[in-house]
Amino acid sequence: MIGPISGVHVLDFLQAGAGARPTIARMPRFAEFAARAWSGATVGLKSQPIGERLWRDAPQPTLRRRRLYGYEMMLDVSRSNAQRVLYLDGERFIPDRALAASLVQSGAAAMDVGANIGYYMLLLQRLGASRVICVEPDAENLMELRRTIAANRFTNVEVVVAAAGPVNGQALLKSGLNARVVSGGDRQVAMVRVDDIAPDDLGFLKIDVEGYERLVLDGAQRVMRNQVNLLVEIHPPLLSLDEINAIISNVRNSYDDVTIWALPELGGRLSRPAARLRGARPVPIADWQHLSAPFWLTARA
């Protein structure tokens, strides 16, 4: 029997519908281990409500360390549910990891545009990138990214504090965990072209910029002509069909081997989010126009 926490048994606390909720200050760390075990037992389907119960009143910052791809990931679980779910679910959180594994060239440099808090940077390290260039404009994301770099004492990571785009200059950023460049942004940041910061030995380029992908690719024409392996996450709610078609056409102008991927629909309640949590891998698709969830485009030499 697991002992009570503030009068509530851990398993009662974790289950949906539990009434009482202990405070963060009184919660022993073993409750978090129990939460991760419970999340695994439910294939991640309860990760978000579990994370909310554990940390919704957490003071800022509340840092947690988690092993991810053999390295240390430093997470501020007070910021959002994304950090909490990543802490609980680990590698299941990154559904396109198998696509990256097929594209990253061991011993070559890799660039992560939209590096966020650094989970993809750890994946690129695991896949054997000689060095990783992380492009990220958001100040809070950069704090988490740098904590993870420091925790692992990486000396082969370069952080570019900027948004990527079609020109070198300035841009307006809507800040936050999923920060993105928009005309009505709340913060001015530097903008750089991928072509101007890409090293000669670049072997892999990943782009995930919340709807700004087309313009990032406009600034990566030399990289694409050099046939660098490419992975782009596309966000239909943030893009029109014409914009998505423009992204795909732009890539197909430079590559012969281009594939579009999406997580499978499992039917019933097991939709694409559930497929992600069950560890499903993206599958090639021909018809993407009906998709509302993010999907991926890959291109290889």
Q: What would you note in describing this structure?
A:
- The structure is a single chain.
- By secondary structure, this protein is α/β, with parallel strands linked by helices.
- It folds into 2 domains: 8-89, no CATH class; 94-300, Vaccinia Virus protein VP39 (Rossmann fold, 3-Layer(aba) Sandwich), CATH 3.40.50.
- The protein has helices at 10-14, 30-41, 47-55, 81-89, 97-103, 119-126, 139-152, 194-197, 213-218, 221-225, 241-252, 272-277; strands spanning 4-5, 8-9, 63-68, 71-76, 109-113, 132-135, 157-160, 163-164, 169-174, 180-181, 187-192, 202-207, 229-234, 257-262, 283-284, 295-300.
- The strands form 4 sheets. Strands 7-6-5-12-13-16-14-15 form an 8-stranded mixed sheet, with helices on both faces.
- Helix 2 packs antiparallel against helix 3 and helix 3 crosses helix 4 (81-89).
- The longest helix is centred in the middle third of the chain and has 14 residues, at 139-152.
- The chain is globular, with a radius of gyration of 20 Å.
The average pLDDT value, as a whole number, equals 84
User: Could you give the order of the helices and strands?
Assistant: EEHHHEEHHEHEHEEEEEHEHHEHEHEE
Task: Give me the CATH superfamily of the largest domain.
Answer: Vaccinia Virus protein VP39
User: Which structural class matches the secondary elements?
Assistant: alpha/beta
Query: In the CATH hierarchy, what is the class of the largest domain?
Result: Alpha Beta
Biggest sheet, in brief? 8 strands, mixed
What fold name goes in the CATH topology slot of the largest domain? Rossmann fold
Low-confidence stretches: 1-28, 267-272
How much of the sequence lies in strands comes to 15-25%
Radius of gyration: 20 Å
Q: Report the end-to-end length measured between terminal Cα atoms.
A: 56 Å
Name the CATH architecture of the largest domain. 3-Layer(aba) Sandwich
Number of helices: 12
What percentage of residues falls in helices of 4 or more residues? 25-40%
Q: Please tell me what the overall shape is.
A: globular
Strand count: 16
Strand order of the largest sheet: 7-6-5-12-13-16-14-15
What count of domains describes the coordinates? 2
